Task: inverse folding
């Protein structure tokens, strides 16, 4: 388990990407396919996890997609920090292709928390696209991110341009 | 400045309301279908926020123009030519409620705005060359449904309830308009539901040039209070209840408080 700590300060970020705080490597993901992240730990040094997180995606497409076609993001909550333990919808907890229970990922993702859809601009490769997807309210301290490609084209193979950031949008008050 | 997208309340995903309960929680009871383009662009799939996850698949949609912001809300517009969204439920409707927030852009002779298996299930649209809009459950025989006047281009909420005995009541913007008993009583089977056209007869004059904001179907008869709530806002069902926020403010921020505490301690 990576040692990244989620400090409760506005703007604090966890980055999910190849080589990031938690592994997430969907580069080259084909249209219609799904990808899951490694198990993410949202706990801070005091054993708290955030009430809400802004989810921001950075992506680059292999070719220009249709304008306003989308990438979808889901969150699979878990109560365990162990990769293969207590995962919904048969998530593995490892950075890998996601196929649901048995080649039924498009249905299985409905058992997860839908974060939102990211509408794409019709930009060719070489133009990373960045924007907020949704606000996640994680019910548990751990979880996995799932990306579904409904854009009609594949993701670009440049790993550095396939990332998702989880950002604490505001201070969490405690007393 | 990038504005964060509105959050999907956790109850949409079937989870405990960690970010607060719904303002109108009963609008989630008995829900069969909730297509809500007003929540934002979801591409060629119209997501069902109801428990069945009966997502609609778009056909003919040109995504760059179909998804739009009108009347202050995101919306999905079918072009009245070849666009529609369809799903395949397995419903047997007895007491039921249909609800729709929409803007109709043009009139078409027999257009269907939302259609659940033509006449034997339920339908919502237009039945003649008048400017009235309406519909019913089980309206195979005349009268086909209850109708009310509609002004083209206006954002409106139409709602139809149907009791198990077959009484259909039409509400416009939360206000009851007309009632009618339709020919078919008893449970109404619905195996196809479509927005933008009549799925059983998709001839040109049954297509709709229509912007959709929220389409809902319930397997129960909503009461007047619930219909008024639905008619208050296209996103009424998704509004969170107002909640108290707790913040921690250090004592040093309130010198008077510190002084008073000191006096209190001193007096002891």
Result:
């Amino acid at each position: 388990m990576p040692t990244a700590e989620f400090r409760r300060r506005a703007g604090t970020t966890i980055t999910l990407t190849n080589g990031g705080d938690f592994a997430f490597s969907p580069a080259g993901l084909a249209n219609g396919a799904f990808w899951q992240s490694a198990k993410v730990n949202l706990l801070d040094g005091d054993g708290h996890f955030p009430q809400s997180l802004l989810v921001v995606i950075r992506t680059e497409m292999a070719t220009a997609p249709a304008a306003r076609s989308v990438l979808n993001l889901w969150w699979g909550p878990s109560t365990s920090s162990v990769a293969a333990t207590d995962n919904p919808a048969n998530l593995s907890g490892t950075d890998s292709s996601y196929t649901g229970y048995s080649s039924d990922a498009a249905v299985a993702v409905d058992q997860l928390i839908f974060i939102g859809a990211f509408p794409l601009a019709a930009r060719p490769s070489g133009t990373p696209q960045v924007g907020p997807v949704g606000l996640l309210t994680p019910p548990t301290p751990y979880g996995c991110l799932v990306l579904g490609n409904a854009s009609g084209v594949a993701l670009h193979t440049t790993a550095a341009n396939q990332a998702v950031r989880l950002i604490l949008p505001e201070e969490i008050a405690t007393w | 400045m990038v504005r964060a997208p509105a959050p999907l309340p956790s109850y949409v995903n079937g989870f405990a309301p960690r970010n607060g309960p719904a303002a109108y929680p009963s609008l989630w009871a008995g829900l069969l279908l909730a297509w809500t383009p007003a929540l934002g662009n979801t591409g060629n799939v119209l997501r069902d926020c109801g428990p069945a996850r009966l997502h609609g698949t778009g056909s003919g949609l040109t995504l760059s123009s179909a998804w739009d912001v009108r009347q202050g809300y995101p919306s999905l517009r079918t072009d009245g030519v070849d666009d529609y969204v369809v799903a395949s439920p397995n419903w047997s409707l007895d007491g039921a409620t249909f609800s729709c927030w929409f803007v109709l852009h043009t009139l078409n002779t027999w257009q269907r705005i939302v259609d659940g298996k033509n006449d034997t299930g339920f339908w919502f649209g237009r039945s003649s060359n008048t400017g009235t809009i309406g519909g019913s459950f089980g309206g195979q025989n005349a009268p086909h449904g209850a109708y009310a006047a509609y002004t083209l281009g206006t954002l409106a909420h139409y709602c139809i309830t149907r009791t198990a005995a077959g009484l259909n009541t039409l509400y416009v913007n939360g206000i009851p308009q007309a009632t009618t008993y339709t020919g078919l009583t008893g449970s109404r089977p619905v195996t196809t539901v479509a927005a933008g056209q009549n799925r059983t007869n998709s001839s040109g004059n049954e297509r709709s040039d229509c912007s959709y904001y929220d389409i809902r179907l319930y397997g129960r008869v909503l009461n007047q209070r619930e219909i008024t709530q639905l008619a208050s806002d296209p996103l009424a069902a998704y509004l969170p209840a107002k909640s108290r926020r707790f913040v921690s403010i250090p004592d040093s921020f309130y010198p008077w408080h510190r002084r008073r505490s000191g006096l209190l301690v001193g007096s002891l």
